[in-house]
Structure formats: structure tokens, C-alpha cells
């Protein structure tokens, strides 16, 4: 049974960061209020058939109005850090500096940041969590076009300049792999481009890596000395376990999967500065269909390599991987492996979400060994329940998930010497779960989306996490450790 490993109580290193996260489109609402421009997620969710039940982020958790209440709930949990994202079109309605800054949007984020700090909570800000200004999509086709690197850098510069006196932790992008593959290959996410050739997805990734590096260098040369903050990127990293560790074909299929899914963005930034071989091979095959080939010059590589002060890890689940023979002439390396799950793995509400706590420890060790032993901030980890009546307030599934995953983080720190500095629970509250709308709930707080006041109520997991934060882990004798051992 590889579901669980032993639970080992213990405490985290002093100064360990405990946080929770949200993202602008998923919580703010106020999509067309106070001068905000339209984003690609506004356009996408307003297009019939794109999101379950026709749900939209028009109101979402109404955090544009209710951020003070959110901060009080955070304070009640003893949270000292909070990760949230800025909506680019709330600040620059058409995405460009030339188009003008929206002062009301700037005021809103100043208020959020000040409210957090006044309550002893340190902000961690994601610059881009998927809500591109629609105007940049219309004008350039979005991330497939390198013209937008300049606009992203201008936006990032403005954010550093305006908020960087108070914000010391930045993430340039949330999950480039997800945004490029779901937004530009499968089309399940905004902007909804369906291109099974992978050409658009690969170009998206290429632009994004350049934009990321540009923003990091901007911070490094212009703001670091004055502001003293850190800039990283949040990558969605999966753990792939070979179906048969003694079968070389499965082991190499697993290696290909890890390269494709994790290495696409991790290797250029944290590895040798270039794409993994599987990506390069795919690019070679597609060359005839490409107008601009996603290959890095030596200059690109040296700009991208090392362009992060820490690695943000969004991790949720694992897969068992086996070899799948392909026809080299007609099929791509993307199809050369197969991923499954084990029947004993507990399932969340999201169809992709299986609890495999030991996968996180193995992933962290892999990061240490393959990506230069960086400082690691776990920027997301969490569990979904359904939108059921009565709502799941005694959310033992979520508590089990958190306690087992957090315990594996502790093992990675103590036994594998991985430099994990932060753990972030996704999410502070139930919110707009992209294509799934409000049908999947990841929150430590329940949000009633049928009530126009969007009341929030702490779930049992919120008090569990509060105890973890207060105890800096699971010290022997503490109440939280007893809960854990009872559930075990
Ligand atoms: C994150 O995405 C987002 O950053 C956040 O906004 C979102 O609300 C949260 O997670 C919960 O979904 O496991 O091989 O089947 C994570 C999105 C979706 C990425 C599923 C990996 C499936 C790949 N994940 N996806 S696999």
C-alpha cells in the first residue's frame, strides 16, 4: 500500500512560512467595475458552453468589496502570509502603459496590501494568474506573440515600482505549463485556442519564459537594492512514479514524462538553461509548421538561466507512468507514455486529484537533485470537495490531505535536506474553479455563492491549519497531533 507512509510528528524550522493562496479572477468579482478592462477569462466565461453551469467570475467571492473581512478571517487563523494575484487589466485596462493606468485599480491593491500589513500579514504577489487583458489577446493573439513581452515587463515594472516598497515576495507567473497547454493546446481554458499540433502551446511557453526572465532582470537590476525582495515563479509540478521500477522502458517513459511536464519550464530556469531533450525533439519535428522556431539563442539562455530567487511549487497529485510505444513518423514524444493512478489512492472532487502524500516528498528530492537545490516555496497544495447540500463543513478529507502532505514536507526538510521555506494551502476560501465554475470547492472557508453577501464560514480544516501554524507543525502532545493520530 503506497497510499501512506508513517506519520512522524515534529516541528518545522524557525521562520518557516505558512500561507494560503487565492487568485484575482477566482475571488475578486467586480469584473467591469471602477475602470477595470476585460480579461480573457471574462470573455471566456461569458461565452456559452465554456464553463460548467454557465458560472462566471463576475461576482465570485466579491473580494473586491470584502477584502477587509477576508483579512480578519486570516488574522483569526493566525496567518502571517497571504498569496494573491493582481489583475493586470484592473491596473492597465488595455494591457499597455500607453493605454493609461486605472488609478482605482491601483488604489484597490494598495488598500489590500495596507490592510494585510496593518494586520501583521505579509503579502506574496503573483503578477499573472491567467487573466490577460483581452485587448492584448485581440491585438497580438496573446502569449504566442513575443510582442507582449515588452508589455508584460512594463506592467511588472509598474507593479514593482508602485507596490514594491511593501511587497517583498513576487511570483512572475502562475503555472505556465497549465496556461499554455490548456489555453493554447486543448483550449479548455481561456483564451480557448485548440491546437493539437502543440505549435501554439510551445510558442506560448517560449514567450512566457522570456517574459519571466525579463521581469526578473528588471527587478534584479532596478529594484533589488532598494527594495530587497525576492522574485520567483510558481510551476505546477507533478510526481510521476514508474509503474515497474525494474522495467527500463517504464523508467525511461517516466523520465520523459517528468521532462515534458516539469522540465519544460524548470530546466531552462533552474537547470542547464535550455529546454529538455523531449521538448527539443518535438520542436525539431514541428519545424516545417513554424514561422518562429521556439529555440533559445545563447543570449536567451543566459538571461533565463538562474532567473529566479526561489522556486514556487504548486503540487497536488501523482501519476503512475508506463511506456507506450509510438510510431516515430506520425506520433509525438508527448504520446510516448501513459499515466494512470492506483485504486487505493483517495480521490478528491476534481477528476485529476488523487491524494499521494509521498509523491510530494519524492518530488522535492527530485527538485533538489535536478534543479540546483533551490529555495523551494510550496505555493499551492490542496483538496477539493463537491458543491453539495448540506455543505462539507467537517472536511476530514481535506484535513487528512493537509496533514499527510505537510508531514511529507517535514520529512523532505529533515531527512532529505530539501530547502523548503514555505507551505501554502490552496485555498483560503472556496472560489471560481476555472472550467469547473463553483462545482469544486478547495477552501479552508466555505463561501455561500447563492447569497448575494457571499458569507464566508471557516470549515474544520481552517481550525486544523490554525493549529498547525500556531505549533509550527505537529509537536508531541499538541492537540493537532492528537487529531492526526486519531485519524491515522
Ligand atoms: C491550480 O491549478 C491553479 O493555480 C489554481 O488557480 C486552481 O484553482 C487550483 O490549482 C486547483 O485546481 O494531474 O496530470 O491530470 C492546478 C491545475 C489541474 C494542474 C489539473 C494539473 C492536471 C494534470 N491542475 N492538471 S494531471
UniProtKB/TrEMBL annotation:
GO terms for molecular function: hydrolase activity, hydrolyzing O-glycosyl compounds. Keywords: Glycosidase, Hydrolase, Signal. It comes from the Eukaryota. InterPro entries: GH (IPR017853), GH_1_N_CS (IPR033132), Glyco_hydro_1 (IPR001360). GO terms for biological process: carbohydrate metabolic process. Belongs to the glycosyl hydrolase 1 family. This is Cytosolic beta-glucosidase-like. It comes from Branchiostoma floridae.
